[in-house]
Amino acid sequence: MRTKFSNKNFDIVMIMDAILISLACVLVIMAFREVSGSPVRNARATANVLMAATDDFSKDKVLHSGSMDANGMIQFHTRLDEVSKRIGNLGIGASFKVYSDHPNFAGVSDGENEFRKNALAAARNGESTPSEEFVEEADANFIRMAEPLKAFRDCSQCEVLGFSSYKKGDVIGIREITLPVGDASARTIKKLLYAFGLLASALMVYLGLIIPMFRHYRKEQADITVRADSFEKQASTDPLTGLHNRRYFEQALESYLEEFNAVGSQLGLLVLDLDHFKSVNDNHGHDAGDLLLKEISLRLKAITREHDVIARIGGEEFAVLTPYVTEERLLKVAERYREAIQELRVDIGNVILRPTVSIGVATNANGEQHGEDLFTAADRKLYEAKRNGRNRVAA
Predict the structure, then answer these.
(1) pLDDT tens-digit profile of 125-181?
(2) Is the pLDDT confidence value at 14 over 80?
(3) Which positions ≥6 away from 133 have C-beta within 8 Å?
(4) Cα–Cα distance between 73 and 163 in angstroms, integer?
(5) DSSP bridge pairs for 272
(6) Residues 6+ apart with CB under 8 A from 103
C-alpha cells in the first residue's frame, strides 16, 4: 500500500509538473511573440500619435504670419518648419517630411522613392488607412507612415506658371513620419525567454519574466500616452502665459463661428492689445515685459467665463471668444476687462507698472462666414480705440 501510494503520488507530481512545464512553454511562446512585436507596435503607436497631433495642413491658417502669397506657399513653409522642429525636439529620433509631385512644392518636397510613390497613389485612390513601411537596416530598423497631404487653398497661379491646377482639399502629396524601432531591449528579453524555456521553469518564467514584461509594456504605453498629451498641450498652449496660443484660437474661431451661424446664435469676439508695451521692454527689459504679460494673463483668466476661449495671439495681443452675448452685453464684458487691467499694479523692483489695454469688439451679427472676417472687424475697432487715445473700448 505504501509503495502504491508513493507511486501514485509520484504520478500526480509528474502530471502536475508536466502541466506546469506545458503552461510555462505556452507562456514563454506567448511572451516571445509579444516581446518580438512590441517595438514595432510601440513605434507604430507613436507614429500614429505624432501624425494625429501635428498640423495636417488641410486648413488655411488665415491668421498665420507669413501667409500673404497667393498660393499660401510662404505659410506652408512656415508651418512645415514648425512641425519639423516640434517633432525633432521630442528627442525620440523621429523626423517629419512631405513629398509632392507638384512643381509648386518642389522647394519643400523630399525625394521620390517607391514607398512615397505608392503612398501618394493610394492617397489619391481614396484609401483611408495610412500607408506604412518597415525598413530593416544593418544598424537600425525604422517604420515609415504616410497620410495624404491635402491642399488648404486653391492654386490661383498654377495655370499662369504653366503648372497643373489644384483645388482646396485635393490630394497634392503625402505627410511622412519616420521613426526608429528600438529593439535592443527586445532582443535581450528574447534571449532570456529562450533560456527560461529550455529550463522549463514555470514559476521562474511567471514570477521573473512574464509579470515584469507586462509591467514594462504597460509602462511604455503609459509613457506614450503622457508624451502624446504633452505634445498636444504644447501644440495648443502659449509657453509664457499658459493661455491658448494663436493656433488653437484660429481653430476655435472657425469652429465656433460655423456652429453659431448654423443655429443663428450670437458670438462675440474681443481683441485686446496692451498700450505702450514696447516702452516697457525698451525701458525695463524683456524680463519685466514677460512678468507683465504673465500678470495680465492671470487677471484675464480670473474674470473669464468657463466656456469662453481666451488666447494670446501675438506679443502683447490677446483675444477672447464669448458665446451667447448681445452686443450690449459684450461691451460691458469688454469694459470689465479694460477696468481689470487698468487696476493692475505690477511691481518689477524699481518701479510699479500700471498697464492699460485697448479693446476692439465685434460680433457675427452681420453674418460673417469666416473667422478672418470677424477677426478683421474686431481688429479695425482695436486700432480705432488706439487712435482715439488708448485705454478704451471700440465697437
Answers:
(1) 988 788 888 777 656 778 888 999 999 888 888 888 888 889 999 999 999 988 887
(2) no
(3) 115, 143, 144
(4) 15
(5) 318, 359
(6) 161, 163
Task: Give, rounded to a whole angstrom, the gap between the first and last alpha carbons of the chain.
Answer: 105
Residues in the chain: 395
Q: What residue ranges of the chain are covered by domains with CATH 3.30.70.270?
A: 246-394
**How is residue 350 written as a grid cell?**
524699481
Beta-sheet strand order (sheet of 267-274):
309-312, 317-323, 267-274, 357-363, 393-394
Please identify which residue in the block is written with the cell numbers 482639399.
169
* Cell 481614396, residue located: 126
Q: How far apart are CA 331 and CA 333, in angstroms?
A: 5
Crossing angle between the packed helical segments 246-263 and 371-387, to the nearest 10 degrees: 110
CA angle, residues 6, 7, 9, in degrees to nearest 5: 65
Phi, psi of 137 (to 5 degrees): -125, 170
Whether this model's pTM surpasses 0.85:
no
Which residue type, as a one-letter code, is found at position 189? Answer: I
Interstrand relation of 357-363 and 393-394 (parallel, antiparallel or unpaired): parallel
Q: Nearest to residue 371, comparing CAs of 126, 102, 163, 61?
A: 61
- For 324, the grid coordinates are 451667447
Q: Are 393 and 334 in contact (CB under 8 A)?
A: yes
CATH tag, 246-394 = 3.30.70.270
Q: For every residue of 89-151, which 3-state class applies, written as one string? A: HCCCCCEEEEECCCHHHCCCCCCCCHHHHHHHHHHHCCCCCCEEEEEECCCCEEEEEEEEEEC
Beta carbons within 8 Å of 144's beta carbon, 6+ residues apart: 115, 132, 133, 134, 135, 176, 177, 178, 179
66 CB neighbour count, 10 Å cutoff: 14
